[in-house]
């Protein structure tokens, strides 16, 4: 496996970090730092986040200046300051985890405290929640969200006008069960967008609760450490800021995915297939895990050949999948409307280099464009087609390697989910959580965790707080890369460049025990 056991033993800790071996108190200051950070995010988002076109809170009142000119610049500065505090607190918490100084409870408390201010925040780094409400409104008023976009609504003007222009006329790419949930939310909040966003977050907490319930049990089966898993999967910026602060329906899908995989590890295969199928009805990505469940089921059958066991498990899985899929679709839409499959192509309208094949296509186009006036679309289309073939080959190989079932099948499913997020257009930052949540329950090496820090910070920042991409603002991206690398280095060594110690006098940290005093210099 790519992840191996984390050796957080005393012998593995370098001399400067030996002070971490002292048992720790509860990390109140670190938790408070992150909470202050998300509070700043919440306040600054009123001017720099996914704000409403007609805002009943600020509107044109005395505080509306925060959305224009220097006020907006100040809001952005406060927002990024809040983000820096969250990352600082998360990395600091990670150092305590790696040193074995805190258990899972402080991490869980930290994550919940960091999320709490964002419950009432405007959307952060995305406007997708407005699309959720628009598509739910379509279903509520008898329209087909898989045929047209929210622009066809002639009611709820606040809902319609706040949907991003790209998705105004685009069919929904989500599963029918999630549209039913969105319909229920809109039936309560109607044209009140603030209430709609808050209630969406409250509902998505169901997915977070399921994930929190499953993670400790997944760790026992997969050999990881619960504090590390919680730090990676629950307290990270991708979860706190993207999935919850966004918010994104991936959070609910992950709840069904993790509990379904856990059920398979506990040999409750019927429950596993049902749960993952329900997750697929929320967001189709969960379907990637279903073929791996077949191997897990077959591997624990006895009395027959492996081939017969495979076909027996496959037939049973299909026999469970079909009625759940049909019933879920019928209950959600009132008919067996399979139009949502065509809606899966809608996100492919997003084209940027964060998606690896799209970036390759754009790079080749720019080189060719130096000598010939050509369009970029053929290059991107060809690169995406090649990537799709590569993804299919990779997925089939991972599925075949998972035939022994058990933890190996879960690992192969997780890296396949990551491959789908990277190679299938589009690649959006929060898509990486699909695989990270499962992989977090495996053993980890410190350097790999450092890489995760870099990726987490990078993908959170490559979109502006308004939800528009920043990927072609090259100076901004250069700063993001530097910040991400510094955060990654800080996990392994506090203040790796000495930036903090350079301007403040050393003082005793009440949370950390004092470092051993240096020997006195000899006198002449």
Tell me the number of helical segments per DSSP (H or I, 4 or more residues long).
19
Share of residues in strands: under 5%
Structural class computed from helices and strand pairing? mainly alpha
* Average pLDDT taken over every residue: 88
The main sheet comes to: none
Number of strands: 0
Order of helices and strands: HHHHHHHHHHHHHHHHHHH
How far apart are the first and last residues' alpha carbons, in Å?
A: 58 Å
Relative helix content? 55-70%
Estimate the global geometry from the Cα principal axes.
globular
Low-confidence stretches: 1-22, 517-524
Kindly provide the radius of gyration, computed on alpha-carbon positions and rounded to a whole number of angstroms.
Answer: 24 Å
Set down the secondary structure blueprint:
Elements: H1 28-48, H2 69-98, H3 104-115, H4 128-140, H5 157-162, H6 176-189, H7 193-222, H8 226-233, H9 237-244, H10 250-265, H11 269-282, H12 290-299, H13 306-333, H14 356-369, H15 377-401, H16 406-423, H17 433-439, H18 446-461, H19 474-492
Helix pairs in contact: 1-2, 1-3, 2-19, 3-8, 4-6, 6-7, 6-13, 7-10, 9-18, 10-11, 11-12, 11-13, 12-13, 12-16, 14-15, 15-16, 16-17, 18-19
């Amino acid at each position: 496996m790519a992840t191996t056991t984390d050796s957080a033993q005393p012998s593995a800790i370098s001399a400067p970090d030996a002070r971490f071996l002292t048992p720790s108190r509860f990390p109140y200051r670190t938790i408070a730092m992150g909470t202050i950070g998300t509070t700043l995010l919440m306040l600054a988002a009123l001017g720099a986040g996914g704000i409403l076109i007609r805002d009943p809170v600020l509107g044109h009142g005395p505080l509306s200046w925060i959305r224009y000119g220097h006020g907006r610049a100040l809001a952005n500065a406060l927002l990024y300051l809040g983000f820096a505090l969250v990352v600082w607190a998360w990395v600091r918490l990670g150092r305590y985890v790696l040193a074995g100084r805190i258990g899972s409870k402080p991490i869980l408390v930290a994550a919940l405290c960091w999320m709490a201010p964002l419950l009432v925040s405007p959307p952060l780094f995305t406007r997708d929640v407005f699309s959720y409400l628009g598509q739910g409104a379509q279903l509520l008023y008898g329209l087909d969200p898989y045929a047209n976009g929210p622009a066809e609504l002639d009611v709820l003007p606040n809902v319609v006008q706040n949907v991003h222009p790209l998705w105004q006329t685009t069919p929904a790419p989500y599963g029918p069960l999630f549209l039913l949930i969105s319909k229920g939310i809109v039936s309560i909040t109607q044209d009140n967008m603030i209430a709609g966003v808050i209630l969406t977050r409250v509902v998505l907490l169901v997915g977070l609760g399921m994930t929190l319930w499953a993670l400790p049990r997944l760790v026992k089966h997969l050999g990881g450490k619960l504090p590390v898993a919680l730090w990676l999967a629950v307290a990270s910026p991708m979860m706190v800021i993207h999935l919850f602060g966004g918010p994104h329906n991936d959070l609910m899908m992950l709840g069904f995915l993790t509990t379904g995989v856990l059920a398979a590890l506990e040999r409750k295969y019927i429950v596993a297939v049902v749960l993952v199928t329900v997750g697929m009805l929320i967001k189709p990505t969960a379907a990637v895990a279903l073929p791996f469940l077949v191997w897990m089921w077959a591997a624990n059958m006895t009395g027959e050949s492996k081939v017969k066991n495979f076909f027996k498990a496959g037939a049973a899985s299909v026999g469970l999948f079909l009625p759940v899929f049909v019933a879920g679709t019928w209950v959600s839409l009132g008919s067996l409307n399979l139009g949502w499959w065509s809606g899966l192509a809608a996100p492919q309208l997003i084209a940027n280099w964060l998606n690896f094949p799209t970036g390759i296509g754009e790079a080749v186009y720019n080189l060719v464009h130096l000598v010939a006036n050509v369009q970029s679309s053929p290059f991107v289309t060809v690169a995406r087609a090649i990537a799709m073939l590569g993804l299919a080959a990779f997925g089939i190989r991972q599925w075949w390697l998972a035939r022994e079932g058990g933890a190996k099948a879960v690992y192969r499913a997780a890296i396949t989910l990551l491959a789908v997020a990277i190679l299938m257009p589009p690649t959006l930052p929060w898509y990486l959580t699909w695989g990270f949540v499962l992989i977090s329950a495996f053993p980890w090496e410190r350097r790999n965790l450092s890489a995760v820090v870099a990726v987490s910070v990078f993908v959170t920042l490559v979109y502006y707080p308004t939800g528009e991409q920043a990927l072609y603002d090259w100076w901004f991206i250069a700063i993001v890369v530097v910040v991400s690398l510094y955060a990654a280095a800080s996990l392994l060594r506090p203040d790796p460049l000495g930036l903090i110690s350079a301007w403040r006098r050393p003082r005793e940290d009440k949370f950390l025990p004092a470092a051993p005093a240096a020997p006195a210099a000899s006198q002449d």
